[in-house]
Automatic annotation (TrEMBL):
Modified residues (Phosphohistidine): 81
Entry-linked Pfam families: PTS_IIA
Coiled coil spans: none
InterPro entries associated with the record: PTS_IIA_lac/cel, PTS_IIA_lac/cel_sf
Name listed for the protein in its UniProt record: PTS lactose/cellobiose transporter subunit IIA
Length: 115
């Protein structure tokens, strides 16, 4: 049985890097907004990050699905780098929920208005 090889294009790789970076930037922005007591704006930044992360994850899912179908790909350092960016962004997203809850409690203790 001959395995079909899939091509991972530079567009996919750099798309994964760029989208992951944009999502992570939105999550960092959300945390900064929370520190300023701007909870509603922070929630919007999280939504923006989530939408961007969903786009990045779709690229990864495409390749995981193809591999699950028995197709193979040659993976280079750039693809590993892209996956690393995505993984780090997912970790930031997971930690962000905890950090925003803690920041909300800090803001309440400081008597800061939550807008």
């Amino acid at each position: 049985m001959v395995s079909e090889t899939i091509e991972i294009t530079p567009e996919d790789i750099f798309g994964l890097i760029a989208l992951s970076g944009d999502a992570k930037a939105s999550y960092h922005h959300a945390m900064l907004l929370m520190q300023e007591g701007k909870a509603e704006e922070a929630a919007e930044a999280v939504k923006t990050g989530d939408a961007t992360l969903k786009e990045a994850h779709a690229i990864q899912t495409k390749f995981v699905t193809l591999e699950a179908q028995g197709k193979t790909a040659t993976v280079g350092v750039l693809m590993v780098h892209a996956q690393d960016h995505l993984m780090n962004t997912i970790l930031v997203k997971e930690m962000l929920g905890y950090m925003m809850n803690m920041q909300n409690e800090i803001n309440q203790l400081k008597g800061m208005d939550q807008k």
